[in-house]
Batch of 2 targets.
Target 1
Amino acid sequence: MALLETKDLTSGYGELQILWGVDLTLEQGILTCMVGSNGVGKTTLLRTVMGLIKPWKGQVLFDGRDVTRLSAHEKASLGLVLVPEGRQLFTDMTVRENLELGANPRRARQKAAKNLERVFDLFPRLKERERQKAGTLSGGEQQMVAVARGIMAEPALLMIDELSLGLSPVLTFSLFRALRLLGNQGYTILLVEQNVHLALKVSDYAYILNEGKVELSGPPTEIQGNDKVRAAYLGI
Amino acid sequence: MSTAEPGREENMPEGTAGPLLQVDCVTKNFRGLRALSNISFDLMENRILGLIGPNGAGKTTLFDVINGVYAPDAGQVLFKGEKISGRRTYHSARLGLARTHQVVRPLSELSVRENAIVGACFGRKNLRLKEAGPVADEVLEAVGLAPLAAKPAGALNVAQKKRLEMARALASQPYLLLLDEVLAGLNPTEMDAMLHTVRAIRDHGITIIMIEHVMRAIMSVSDHVVVLDHGEMIAQGSPREVAENTKVVEAYLGRPEDAERLQEEV
């Protein structure tokens, strides 16, 4: 059974409709990416799944249960975790404190020590900087903290919005590498990303979103080189 | 818009072959950040120019420089041969340059018609209220809002507000119209109708520059496309030419070599 399903999911901001009926199926233990040009609704989709925006229409099913109308904090307690675009760290707190805050959901508290070990394994650089204020880190290191904080929340589904945004190529590589390792460890991940090549390279399954709808989906090997991908980004 | 063809009136230079707009080596910095770097292109009269690029490419900043919200740090903008960069926005409005905004802000408590009248009064000809009425009626007809003329603007839906935004700009009787994301938030039917309207405006002699994220639409409506990325112009040409340009494809989709390297390292 799919871990997360959306059916005809429709939403937007105020009067502006952004999503026009999105059907999505995420399998347990699979790294799925959602790619598409800017403005096609990727972030809106994550925010709607997470419950930060109320759906106008359609359903969100999590582990077979209808969670469409649950609030974001209720979804968080079920294990839906969002690493937001732009990281949103507590910049005046240390790396360690940011990570500990991630372990706040009840389901995560008992596993905090084990998860902390896990994220320091994944990002040794964060171990070196655990007493440093998060705001003094580089953009890539802050992104590591954001992902690590998501893991501290003991996610059943880890959703990441724009992993590579504004990062240097070197740090982009290490983050994508870490993501692939998380996928190998059995995490269920939904990655939203503009860089289609990198996203397809690390993912097990891919969706192309265009104008608020799923344009194409399938294993990355089938998606790569499909003319529809370029058309979705460039219009022809 | 059968009688008021704003682009084809007295002040238009007759038979001149020069471009209507010249963007000449424009650079704009915000503190340390280079938002626009040495941008140059010419726009001939009666064309639709599509201005595209990923988020943060500098598209709206370029609009802001063209219509006088910002003065460029280097370079200049010429409109009908006259330097307009560094002048105020009302100066470019007087010369015949109008603009719509991404986030529409009609005067909600005024009627649709009154909103268009305001556009006419502060436009190229500085019309008096009595003269502005007929101009407003014509542009509302042109954008398909005539049946809603008496409604308060605040009561319109999104698609109608976008049309009102265009009507206000058109009421100023511009030669050049800058459209900032007029398709955002429209459903496919509304989008097709809006593209039809955009073409009709051009066919009445108004030159257009459009910023748009809906690529299928912008590629179908534009005669010429300019692509910005990180403040630089990385390509220009026909829609087909830019869509096949390697730099453009990489700006939108990323570089395939990055992914190859990732595979080697993982």
Target 2
Amino acid sequence: MKAIKKGVLRRLIINAFTRESCSPQRRERRDYVESYLRRLAGSSSAPPQRTLRLCGGLPLLAAVCLLISTLALAQVPYKRIADARAEPGNWLTYSGDYQSHRFSRLAQITPANAGRLKTAWVYQFKQPGRQETSPVVVDGVMYITESPTIVTALDAHTGRTLWSWRRNISRFVKTIGFGQSNRGVAILDGAVYVGALDCYLVALDAKTGAVRWETKVEDNATGHAITAAPLAIDGKIIVGVSGGEAGIRGFLDAYDARTGKLAWRCWTIPGPGEPGRETWGGDSWKTGAGATWVTGSYDPDLNLLYWGTGNPGPDWNGDVRPGDNLYTCSLLAIDAATGKMKWHFQFTPHDVHDWDANQIPVLIDGAWQGRPRKLVAMANRNAFYYVLDRVTGEFLLGEPYAKQTWAKGLDAKGRPIVLPNTEPTVEGNLVWPSLQGATNWHSPSYSPLTKMFYVAVREMGAYYYKGEAEYKPGTFFAGGGERALEGDKAYGAVRALDVATGKMKWEFRLQSPPWAGVLATAGGVVFGGSNEGNFFALDALTGKPLWDFQTGGYIAANPISFLIGGKQHVAVAAGQALFVFRLP
Amino acid sequence: MWRFCLLVTFLAGVFARPSQDPISALTADDLAHGKRLYVGHCAVCHGIEGAGGRGPALNQPGLRHVTDNWSLYGVIKNGVQGTEMPAAWQMTEREAWRVAGYVRSIGRVAAENLPGDVARGKELYRAKGCAACHITQGQGGVPGPELTEIGVRRSAAYLREALTDPAATAPEGYLVVSVTTRDGRSVRGARINEDSFTIQLRDDDNRFHSFRKTGIKELKKEAGVSTMPSYKTLTVAELDNLVAYLASLRGAK
């Protein structure tokens, strides 16, 4: 009887952790999950066998204890995320915290010891694709996404899989103007949220990967898709969409975290009768784009979301959409309760270079010209670094941080003074930056210790072409294109900007314009990656290189840091694998 | 049943390619627009009016990857995998057809008649020792680019320039770099690869070298320099022959 009970209980626990119970690797996985459960229950230093013997003596109590402890561990209430700084060993959101600092408060890795970093483990992605995941780490479990829409939970100690969920994505899925990628998950309470490439939002059970609900956000047939990690706030999941080259009408959505029901939709392109509609000639607003394809930030005190919007459609032919084209290429402050726009700031009015403002808005509380102020900083794709008041949207500062040949500067309100002859032409017009911008979706990082804003910069020009703009639902609606100056004519850099002035403090040159984000740490180190596969550590104060590792694959992802087994780890996706490093 | 068959026949008719391709329907204005697009997007490699350059000449009736107008459209829209020909993904269908129409219009020009003699050119290639540095059909040395398909990849005008002024046409992947290490070693050669922390090069004796940049005192990139000697001392006839031979190299036989 005792033996039967023990077996049943064990199966119950195992089933709770493994979805694919009939897979060929069932036995291996079962054994693995068992030992994992034992480790979660015991101290990390205790040998698993000892814990097992204890359980053997008191099977029922031990199993219940295990269940309670693991359930408790899997709970990530909103309060924990809002107070993410209190638990630097975890990485609870896409950017680490609601302020999107992508800054780790862990300080074990320093300029003095970074040279000794070693690989802790490597996870190989399941199928080839563009791997842009930024992991979330909670209580010893790492949640990653894989191309095209796969969510995998890994043991953060070893990289071994706990569960993996794959959405059936049709090979005809429309990803117009971008690759089949996904940048990560959001976690809230006991669920993991992912945006699917076919434009669904899916909630998975954090312990098993089982689907709790799925909601269709929009129709993929019209070029809507999701690549961004959702953002989980109190009871709501915020999700942005891709489709800026397909002539969608952009929006930001909030869904009830428990049911998947739409709470609100905030259109980024105003409709008839709404303010801003007058900035679109004719019916051009209907295909005005303004996608929301990179995760934004959140201020819990103001209850405001900060979210960037993409290019107007069509990208390179502005003739068909006369006007400023609000609210494209803008930063929006949105009331999280209602979805109403509180303010907007447009970086590039009537953009014709595809300079999406889908960069990370970094929320900073600091002294501004002598008095404390709530700020938001953004290194924009258009090559200017901006600081705004995040309560009012007031423009405070704008400084170029990379080569640009399109604007004479910014006026007192932050509006660019556009130079003549910088528009795309049929024959091509050479302008800096290239359409991929002076930076792009890859994340910057802000260190409150050095007061520096770190950004991976792309120094590259491009010939911009103007073409026809003919809208057909679900097809390219670009109106032109570019030919970038490649090879040795372009380069990249990690730059440190003084957060208050935008002036460069140092730069570390890269071989080519990068697609990898940066991570600053309290240990005084900045991590970054290159197209050529280098993952590296720089001194946060000087930019001096401290360590580098050749991963063997293109890096187009953001690094994160977490604590496991008492040691600081740093993780980054590179090529077709996720690499995790630590000190010996 | 017959109704179903009729429906199938009807649908097949609707979805089949029209027998008349869009190029024949292009107007003079369409072709003029196609030319403007060509000048902006294509001429940088294929030359004004298709004279060729880094890319093959297009002012000839037969094109290597093209069997009919539809495949020409496909080459423009999708590029050619494994070559330097990119996809014009940003063009609308109509734009790509206009470019295709313009390319066809310049293709009606008679192919350039090269003045040289292929056999004599081949002999000169051997006599001048070109094979010491270039591979053709599996034979030859490694320092320079393989020439097995060079007649397809490069125009005659480009080949002539490469012979008389090699630096002007130095291909990517053959950047000459000089490295002086902190411990006093100096190596000059072609850059094989480079990242932010390391560089790999091949010296004149075909030896590979790998350096960490922290160990390099000076890294000189000699842009616009080629290790190939200039052959401008050849007579006009010799040059014509050599170009004719190179232009005849159109892939393994």
